[in-house]
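Severity: low
Component: inverse-folding endpoint
Summary: output formatting inconsistent between runs
Steps to reproduce: submit the following structure tokens with default settings.
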């Protein structure tokens, strides 16, 4: 590399002495390096005259390649520095439905400002058990979703925030203007519910049972935010959702929350990592941004529940 830098220096300064001064070496050392390079190539690279040093055709060809190599080397050094500092790298995240409307998008937005050279692959899914196996196998760097801490000894769970649930409806829903409603007033209406086996569905079933109510008949079951949001906007259906999921739509007047308290016990929204693996610097940067979004969610959304 030092010889290539010397050749580029001669081309830029027009003299061996000028190149030596640029590289902070003595002229004899520069002369020796040039001779070694010419011996390795087998041709004269620099001709010296009264006007200074001029590259031969072979020297020009090698200099052109040398510039490209040195630029790539500088880029590599920069990327290595960014990688070690957590400013570059690749991270793969498994995201359950609760994390895709707000948590992950806000984290990604922060990264575009603070660490734009980190690339993130987000894998969406509904099964936390499948995601856990992928995390253990090393296919994922982390998971985000609803998890009870301590569910799996091989995995480490960090709580990001607790979220409150409300009943979402379209803005001009027949019940949107009511100031007081009971859960019993809503059972006969069409509902959107999460599928059987999910944490949220279990919490809803427990809530209805404690309230002495049966489950809503014939609900639409989905974990898709897009399907749920579209149905809420187009129909009179109601849907229990974390307040942060519909916060933007409610703020814009597209949807509303019904005045019904939902006494649900659901796991907190959290981050799951392998307990015995050290996160890469880039993964640590992503984790820090997730923590910041979770901190904001605690103060912004939980109090409104």
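Observed output (run 2 of 3):
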């Amino acid at each position: 590399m030092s010889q290539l830098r010397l050749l580029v220096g001669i081309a830029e300064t027009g003299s061996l002495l000028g190149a030596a001064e640029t590289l902070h070496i003595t002229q004899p050392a520069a002369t020796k390096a040039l001779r070694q390079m010419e011996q390795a190539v087998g041709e004269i690279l620099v001709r010296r005259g009264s006007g200074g040093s001029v590259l031969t055709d072979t020297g020009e060809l090698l200099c052109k390649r040398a510039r490209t190599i040195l630029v790539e080397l500088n880029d590599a050094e920069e990327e290595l520095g960014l990688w070690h500092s957590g400013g570059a790298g690749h991270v793969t995240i498994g995201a359950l439905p609760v994390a895709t409307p707000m948590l992950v998008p806000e984290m990604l937005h922060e990264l575009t400002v603070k660490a734009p050279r980190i690339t993130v692959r987000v894998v969406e899914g509904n099964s936390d058990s499948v995601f856990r196996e992928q995390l253990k196998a090393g296919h994922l760097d982390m998971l985000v979703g609803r998890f009870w801490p301590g569910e799996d000894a091989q995995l480490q769970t960090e709580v990001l925030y607790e979220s409150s649930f409300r009943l979402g409806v379209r803005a001009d829903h027949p019940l949107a203007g009511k100031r007081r409603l009971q859960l019993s007033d809503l059972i006969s209406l069409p509902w959107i519910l999460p599928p059987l086996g999910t944490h949220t569905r279990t919490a809803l079933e427990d809530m209805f049972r404690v309230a002495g109510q049966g489950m809503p008949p014939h609900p639409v079951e989905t974990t898709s935010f897009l399907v749920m949001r579209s149905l809420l906007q187009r129909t009179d259906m109601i849907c229990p959702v974390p307040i942060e999921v519909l916060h933007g739509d409610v703020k814009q007047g597209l949807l509303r929350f019904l005045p019904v308290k939902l006494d649900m016990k659901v796991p907190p929204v959290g981050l799951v990592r392998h307990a015995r693996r050290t996160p890469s610097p880039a993964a640590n940067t992503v984790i820090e941004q997730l923590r910041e979004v979770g901190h904001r969610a605690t103060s912004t959304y939980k109090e409104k529940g």
